[in-house]
Amino acid sequence: EAQVTQNPRYLITVTGKKLTVTCSQNMNHEYMSWYRQDPGLGLRQIYYSMNVEVTDKGDVPEGYKVSRKEKRNFPLILESPSPNQTSLYFCASSLGPGDEQYFGPGTRLTVT
Amino acid sequence: AQSVAQPEDQVNVAEGNPLTVKCTYSVSGNPYLFWYVQYPNRGLQFLLKYITGDNLVKGSYGFEAEFNKSQTSFHLKKPSALVSDSALYFCAVRDPLDKLIFGTGTRLQVFP
Question: Which of B44, B51, B99 sits opposite A103 (nearest CB)?
Fold first, then answer.
């Protein structure tokens, strides 16, 4: 089954404790993205990647890192999480930026 | 700056009536425009997209969208709403740097 998986689905952590949210797709897609969803703000793109070893900043990259060492994986790293990063995070993939995106189920992160 | 606006936070419509969810955009060059739907506790699902060609685009679940270049709009429509259409709808545009910009979302409530 074609899908995007994210782990963990739920995470409660404390300020400053490094964490990684994994994202994997099995569709051989070139383009992958991370978004955060906040009430009243919609979805905002954090980082995106056009291909392996190519990543670019989206609209809200501060406080986040990503890597794309393999085509299928695109982990999101929070080196020192802060409470303002409490949000619902989605990973997505597509053939290209002009194509239909497939979204993962989301990761609800709470930073206390 | 590239942007997407969804002027209505919520749209209420009776089952069986036509529905419209509004979207306007601002982007350089020819726009790639998308609509996505989010059901409760789920990731986003693709509904339809416009790249070029016919101004009326047909998508999933009986939805369609009308591209209007002069009004820079891409409104989502359905001739006859169903209660099961109740969800959060997002309009999105691809910018010249291949970032994806989403609107803030419109909650559609269809009443029996």
Answer: B44
